[in-house]
């Protein structure tokens, strides 16, 4: 029988993970199946019961999406440093009766920016909007990419401060790492790269970011994907930003990291990113 994998979330109908991993399995010749499971939100034990059932049925690994990333963290036996720092898990491996947990969202994002979009962060001024789960997962890989300055802005500024404080302990790369509110941004000048890691675009909203943060010739990255030109990307484009991108590359790259972790072979991602990309204008 093929090795079994799945993504679990609620709702799960929108997921592209079975398509992505099916494509990877075919490309690399791996004998595996990959399905989608809608985990119950109620009762509180519903998520962990679903995972345990999947393991009992021979499951080898799972991706985890909203709203279960924290519950997956809580039920894991071993967690990578990235998972520990973000407090969230997006991939699990089941081995010898243990649940091993990872978070590949941040490495997927950094790889998309640096490798696919050819925008190395070393020495740059980088601004991240948002301090939710995705920003938490991204921060450690961002610090490792050695920007000269990394600023995290959030509506609830205390969340951004707490996150920066936590990551600062692992910041051996030496760049500046600070937190602020949106009202402070106008005084901070232009950034080479601005990343929208808020969920504002999911409801067609714009985080209250001033156009003065963008550099003509710089880059803007929207974590949401498949939404075309979001209000954030439109603001960036109108401010003269040269490179704009959405999160489809991040989605495929984090999947490729999980696939390599499970199967020991890293699939090619370029063709799939092209296939899944929704034009931005
Ligand atoms: P969370 O719910 O954990 O965090 C939401 C964040 O958005 C918080 O910082 C919140 O601020 C902020 N926010 C929400 N609405 C607004 C608004 N109107 N103005 C300003 N800030 C706002 O979400 P995630 O971190 O999990 O997801 C963030 C985004 O990343 C989503 O668009 C999601 O789809 C995308 N994503 C993409 C992935 C990919 O592979 N491409 C993977 C994971 C996520 P506050 O704390 O002040 O409330």
Keywords:
single chain, 281 residues, alpha/beta, Rossmann fold, six-stranded parallel β-sheet, globular, binds NADPH dihydro-nicotinamide-adenine-dinucleotide phosphate
Task: Report the principal-axis shape.
Answer: globular
Q: How many β strands by DSSP?
A: 12
CATH architectural type of the largest domain: 3-Layer(aba) Sandwich
The main sheet comes to: 6 strands, mixed
The strand order across the widest sheet is 2-1-3-5-6-4
At CATH level 3, the topology of the largest domain is: Rossmann fold
**Count of discrete domains:** 2
- Distance linking N and C termini: 45 Å
The named CATH superfamily of the largest domain = NAD(P)-binding Rossmann-like Domain
- Give every kind of bound small molecule, once each: NADPH dihydro-nicotinamide-adenine-dinucleotide phosphate
Q: What's the Cα radius of gyration?
A: 19 Å
Provide the succession of SSEs: EHEHEHEHEEHEHEHEEEHEHH
GO molecular function: NADP binding; shikimate 3-dehydrogenase (NADP+) activity
Pathway: Metabolic intermediate biosynthesis; chorismate biosynthesis; chorismate from D-erythrose 4-phosphate and phosphoenolpyruvate: step 4/7
Protein name: Shikimate dehydrogenase (NADP(+))
Subunit structure: Homodimer.
What does this structure look like?
The chain is α/β, with parallel strands linked by helices and 281 residues long. The chain has two domains: 3-103 and 249-276, Leucine Dehydrogenase, chain A, domain 1 (Rossmann fold, 3-Layer(aba) Sandwich), CATH 3.40.50.10860; 106-246, Rossmann fold, CATH 3.40.50.720. The chain is built from ten helices and twelve strands. Strands 2-1-3-5-6-4 form a six-stranded mixed sheet, with helices on both faces. Strand 7 (125-129), helix 6 (133-144) and strand 8 form a beta-alpha-beta unit. Helix 5 crosses helix 6. 46% of the residues are buried. The mean pLDDT is 95. The protein binds NADPH dihydro-nicotinamide-adenine-dinucleotide phosphate. Residues 105, 130-135, 154-156, 159, 197-202, 205, 207, 223-225, 247, 250-251, 254 line the site of NADPH dihydro-nicotinamide-adenine-dinucleotide phosphate (NDP). Its EC number is 1.1.1.25. Keywords: Amino-acid biosynthesis, Aromatic amino acid biosynthesis, NADP, Oxidoreductase. Pathway: Metabolic intermediate biosynthesis; chorismate biosynthesis; chorismate from D-erythrose 4-phosphate and phosphoenolpyruvate: step 4/7.
């Amino acid at each position: 029988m093929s090795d079994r994998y799945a993504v679990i979330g609620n709702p799960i109908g929108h997921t592209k993970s079975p398509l992505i991993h099916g494509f990877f399995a075919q490309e690399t010749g791996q004998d595996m199946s990959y399905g989608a499971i809608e985990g119950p939100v109620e009762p509180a034990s519903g998520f962990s019961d679903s995972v345990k059932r999947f393991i009992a049925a021979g499951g080898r690994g799972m991706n985890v999406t909203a709203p279960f990333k924290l519950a997956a963290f809580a039920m894991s036996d071993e967690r990578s440093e990235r998972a520990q720092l973000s407090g969230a898990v997006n991939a699990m491996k089941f081995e010898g009766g243990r649940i091993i947990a990872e978070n590949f969202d941040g490495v997927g994002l950094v790889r998309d920016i640096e490798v696919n979009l050819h925008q190395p962060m070393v020495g740059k001024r980088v601004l991240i909007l948002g301090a939710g789960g995705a920003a938490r997962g991204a921060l450690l890989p961002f610090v490792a990419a050695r920007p000269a300055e990394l600023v995290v802005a959030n509506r609830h500024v205390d969340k951004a401060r707490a996150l920066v404080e936590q990551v600062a302990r692992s910041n051996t790369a030496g760049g500046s790492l600070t937190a602020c509110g949106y009202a402070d941004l106008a005084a901070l000048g232009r950034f080479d790269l601005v990343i929208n890691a808020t969920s504002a675009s999911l409801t067609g909203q714009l985080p209250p970011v001033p156009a003065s943060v963008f550099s003509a010739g710089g880059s803007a990255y929207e974590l949401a994907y498949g939404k075309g030109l979001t209000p954030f990307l439109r603001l960036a484009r109108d401010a003269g930003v040269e490179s704009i991108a959405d999160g489809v590359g991040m989605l495929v790259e984090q999947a490729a990291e999980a696939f390599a972790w499970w199967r020991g072979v890293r699939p090619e991602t370029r063709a799939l990113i092209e296939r899944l990309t929704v034009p931005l204008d």
